[in-house]
Structure formats: structure tokens, C-alpha cells
Design a protein that fits this description.
Elements: H1 3-14, H2 16-24, H3 33-40, H4 44-56, E1 60-65, E2 68-73, H5 76-92, H6 104-111, E3 113-115, E4 118-120, H7 121-133, E5 137-140, E6 143-146, H8 150-155, E7 176-179, E8 186-189, H9 190-202, E9 206-208, E10 215-217, H10 219-229, H11 231-239
Antiparallel strand pairs: 1-2, 3-4, 5-6, 7-8, 9-10
């Protein structure tokens, strides 16, 4: 174990402006240096220096499109680490007094948001619990797997699981639990979580909010997702009521 490298990565994430820029990219978007300067509340010149360090450290990658350079998280593993830090901060830090009172943006984030490339918030938790209740997914420790029932359960959502299986070359877990920082319960991450999120966006059930991680649930999405998971689960999404006390207690937060 290279402790110096661990300390270096921690120092990259730990600078407040860089933290803000990384969190702005946690929904999987690609943004310019100018846009990330605004997120970090620094000048474009300062942002460029920060971004160069993050790229060098392997946390970001740069893509050239025409005249513009776009920055994005280097991998799903980076997103996973950032989400874990967010969870630790939410659990251990005392409440902070904020200059701006949380408003509709926060409520929208809690209902449905993107966690890199999968669905988080109350909607993500409800989807995960429905998959677990129907025996389509099993969470065990830090791992998860789709069962032989997953195809039929997801077919009711219009997903052809057999046709959507990824190639064998990827190292990314197919299905894993991800502890939701706002709900303290698990949503589905990994390739299966990406598949459900992508399908929902392509069908127009979810819309990305401009400049936000929040996902808007469209009327079509309400009909489709409510019909799939049932009225009681949907009420927990929209009303924010507590989810059932039963929980996969063996699962470790990631």
C-alpha cells in the first residue's frame, strides 16, 4: 500500500474548490473549465490549475469536442468514492448553519437525483426495494446480484435484460448496493443501476434538470413507475414517508 499516494489523492479531494468541482460532476456530466470555475467559486485561471491537478491525479479526464475541452469524472470508481465521502460527512458532521435556507432544489434532490449514472433519492431507494421484494436482486455485504427472476421483473418495466447484458470485458460490478446519503437506505448501482437509469431517461420518464443533479419525474414516468412498483411504494416516493423498517442489515455502506 502506497500511503503517500493515498495522502495525495485525499489532498486533491480535500481542497474546498476542488471538492465543489468534483461534486458538480457527480451526476456524470461533462463540463468546461469555465462552468467548473463557477461551481468552485474561483477564477478561471485558478480553476484551470485545480483541474490540471485532478486530471494528473487520475480523478478527472478531459475530452475535446470542437473548440471546447470538457472535464468529467475519470470512472465510476471515482464517483463511488465521492458518494462514500458524502455519506460519511452526512453521518458524522454536526449540522451546518447555511446562509441560504434550503429550498425546492433540496426537495427535488431528495426525491430523485442522479448518482453518477444511476438513480438515487427516494425514487432510487423505492426501485431497489421493489427489486429486492420481488426477488430480482439480492444484496449481501458490499455485493449484490441479479437473480433468475430479474428478467421477468424488469420486463414489466419494458427492459429486455437478456438483450441489455454488457460485454464481458468490463470490470465494473453488474449490481451492487449504494447507500443513499439522504435516505440512509440502499439504491441500485453498478451496470444494472445504469441500465435502469438510461432506460428511464430514454423513455422520457425522467428528465435531467439544467445544471442540477435532480431528476424530474414526468407524467409519463409517474404512470410507468407507479404502475410497476405499486401505489404504496409510489406514495413513499412522492410523500417522503419513511420506508418500511425492514432493511438488508448485512449490507455495508459504500
Amino acid at each position: 500500500m502506497n500511503t503517500n499516494q493515498i495522502a495525495h489523492i485525499a489532498s486533491l479531494v480535500g481542497e474546498p474548490a476542488r471538492t465543489a468541482m468534483l461534486m458538480e460532476l457527480l451526476d456524470g456530466r461533462s463540463l468546461t473549465a469555465h462552468e467548473l470555475a463557477g461551481a468552485g467559486n474561483v477564477s478561471p485561471q485558478t480553476a484551470s490549475r485545480h483541474l490540471a491537478l485532478l486530471v494528473e491525479g487520475g480523478l478527472l479526464r478531459v475530452e475535446q469536442h470542437g473548440r471546447h475541452r470538457y472535464h468529467r469524472l475519470a470512472s465510476a470508481e471515482v464517483a463511488r468514492v465521492l458518494e462514500g465521502i458524502t455519506q460519511l460527512a452526512a453521518q458524522n458532521a454536526p449540522p451546518l448553519r447555511r446562509a441560504v435556507v434550503p429550498g425546492p432544489k433540496d426537495a427535488a434532490m431528495r426525491m430523485a437525483r442522479s448518482c453518477y449514472d444511476h438513480i438515487a433519492g427516494r425514487l432510487g431507494v423505492a426501485i431497489a426495494q421493489h427489486l429486492v421484494a420481488d426477488g430480482a436482486v439480492v444484496f449481501d455485504g458490499e455485493a449484490g446480484h441479479a437473480t433468475d427472476k430479474a428478467g421477468a421483473v424488469l420486463a414489466r418495466l419494458g427492459i429486455d435484460l437478456a438483450a441489455s447484458l454488457p460485454g464481458t470485458g468490463t470490470r465494473r460490478p453488474y449490481c451492487r448496493p449504494c447507500l443513499d446519503w439522504s435516505e440512509r437506505r440502499f439504491h441500485v448501482a453498478g451496470q444494472l443501476g445504469t441500465l435502469i437509469c438510461t432506460h428511464s431517461l430514454e423513455r422520457g420518464w425522467l428528465l435531467r434538470r439544467q445544471g442540477m443533479r435532480a431528476l424530474e419525474i414526468t407524467p409519463k414516468g409517474v404512470m410507468a413507475l407507479r404502475g410497476w412498483m405499486g401505489q404504496e411504494s409510489w406514495r413513499q416516493v412522492t410523500e417522503g414517508n419513511a420506508f418500511p423498517a425492514r432493511q438488508e442489515r448485512r449490507t455495508v455502506a459504500v
